[in-house]
């Protein structure tokens, strides 16, 4: 009967250690000759385990764990990736995108027991992690994992305004627009926290399944700071579609400025912190194209911008825009549908009539470089988030979701639109 013995060569011991670390369940058997004098062979022709024990004694005592496991998919891009070690210390961890080899930055903890990426990963990307650790005797072990992050079709994000670190007017809401329809509105809204140093109650309101705005009952208090935390990572927005954001942002509320346009008297009164700064002659929308009534919030500012009537439905018989002005000065957006308050250099009956296609016009000059004009002054004195109220126009009140204009919803109805 042929005897089978365990050989303890350095080469095979290395294989056994590597297999134990990477495969776990793989068992290596070594075939020898028919040398019956092997002192490690038992009476039944099998090794007594002493060589195997010697090999195992040389294996590292460090055990590396990688999350997610090899082969995982739909992995989150924020907090789902971590490397940890027991019985040793990490020496190196490398993480790369499989497709192009781009390295992912990360940091080993001070005690060398763990590693995490420094920032968010990309969606729909295959990554590979290779980690090395050693035990107290300096014996190394390795582990690796290849996985794929969540696809864009299985995830959602929210685009928010205002910008992080900005200073805004008292009318600026927190507005979040999601890139996928949200069915589990309660879960998503519950994962978003909005707090103000002004001590005001802040409530979220869903305009539709993609837009969620937050505001207090009355305008923000001047000088307050608003903090927003979006803990959406892993939150299921709809079946099979999870959030991938885990971020915070904040903004500061500046002085209070509310300007009231009276379309009947053709005047605008600018009030800051309760005091009238200036009364300015204006020209609002003509009878056939009146300006919306209601509370509107400045959402964008442009020193100059192009305005083409075709983009907002004002066309002639040939389908061309009734107007096309390439350099409208000092323009500030009040609605998504194209309502602006802006400078006008081509002529209008400021203070005596309404002649526009729905915007509020102020006297200005071509080139937007004369600081003495009403248009230039108002542009300079205005912040994104300032409120412009239009009254006595022949049109109806603007829809609250046409721009950042949720202030046109009374508080009871606003709270009724909350999912929590």
From TrEMBL:
Which residues lie within the region annotated Disordered?
33-67
Q: Where do the coiled-coil regions begin and end? A: none
Fetch the SUPFAM superfamilies from UniProt: L,D-transpeptidase catalytic domain-like
Task: Answer yes or no on keyword Cytoplasm.
Answer: no
Check the UniProt entry and state the signal peptide residues, or none. Answer: 1-30
Name the pathway. Answer: Cell wall biogenesis; peptidoglycan biosynthesis; Glycan biosynthesis
GO BP term (any one): regulation of cell shape
Keyword GTP-binding in the entry? The reply is no
Return the GO cellular component terms, semicolon-separated: extracellular region
Q: Where is the composition biased (Basic and acidic residues)?
A: 38-51
Annotated catalytic residues: 342, 359
Keywords assigned: Acyltransferase, Cell membrane, Cell shape, Cell wall biogenesis/degradation, Lipoprotein, Membrane, Palmitate, Peptidoglycan synthesis, Signal, Transferase
Q: Please identify the protein, giving its name as recorded.
A: L,D-transpeptidase
Q: What is the lineage of its organism?
A: Bacteria, Bacillati, Actinomycetota, Actinomycetes, Kitasatosporales
């Amino acid at each position: 009967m042929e005897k089978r013995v365990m050989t303890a060569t350095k080469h095979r011991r290395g294989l056994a250690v590597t297999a134990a670390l990477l495969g776990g369940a793989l068992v290596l058997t070594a075939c020898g000759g028919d040398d019956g004098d092997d002192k490690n062979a038992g009476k039944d022709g099998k090794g007594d385990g002493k060589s195997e024990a010697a090999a195992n004694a040389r294996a590292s005592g460090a055990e590396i764990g990688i999350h997610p496991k090899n082969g995982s998919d739909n992995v989150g891009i924020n907090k789902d990736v971590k490397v940890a070690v027991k019985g040793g210390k990490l020496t190196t961890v490398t993480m790369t995108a499989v497709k192009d080899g781009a390295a992912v930055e990360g940091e080993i903890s001070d005690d060398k027991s763990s590693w995490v990426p420094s920032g968010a990963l990309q969606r729909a990307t295959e990554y590979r992690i290779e980690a090395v650790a050693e035990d107290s005797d300096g014996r190394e072990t390795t582990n690796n994992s290849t996985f794929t992050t969540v696809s864009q079709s299985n995830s959602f994000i929210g685009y928010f305004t205002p910008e992080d670190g900005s200073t805004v007017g008292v009318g600026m809401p927190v507005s979040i627009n999601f890139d996928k329809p949200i069915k589990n509105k309660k879960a998503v809204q519950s994962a978003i926290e909005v707090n103000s140093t002004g001590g005001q109650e802040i409530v979220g309101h869903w305009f539709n399944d993609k837009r969620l705005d937050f505001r207090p009952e009355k305008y923000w208090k001047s000088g307050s700071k608003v903090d927003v935390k979006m803990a959406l990572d892993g939150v299921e927005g709809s079946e099979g579609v999870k959030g991938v954001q885990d971020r915070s942002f904040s903004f500061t509320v500046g002085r209070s400025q509310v300007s009231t346009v009276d379309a009947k008297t053709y005047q605008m009164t600018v009030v800051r912190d309760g005091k009238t700064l200036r009364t300015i002659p204006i020209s609002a929308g003509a009878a056939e194209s009146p300006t919306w009534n209601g509370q509107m919030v400045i959402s964008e500012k442009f020193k100059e911008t192009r305005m083409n009537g075709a983009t907002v439905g004002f066309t002639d018989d040939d389908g061309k825009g009734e107007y096309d002005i390439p350099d409208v000065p000092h323009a500030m957006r009040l609605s998504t549908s194209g309502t602006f308050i802006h400078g006008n250099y081509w002529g209008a009956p400021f203070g005596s009539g309404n002649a526009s296609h729905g915007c509020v016009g102020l006297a200005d000059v071509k080139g937007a470089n004369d600081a003495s004009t009403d248009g230039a002054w108002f542009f300079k004195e205005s912040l994104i988030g300032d409120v412009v109220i239009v009254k006595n126009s022949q049109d109806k009140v603007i829809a609250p979701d046409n721009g950042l204009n949720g202030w046109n919803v009374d508080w009871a109805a606003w709270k009724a639109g909350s999912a929590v």
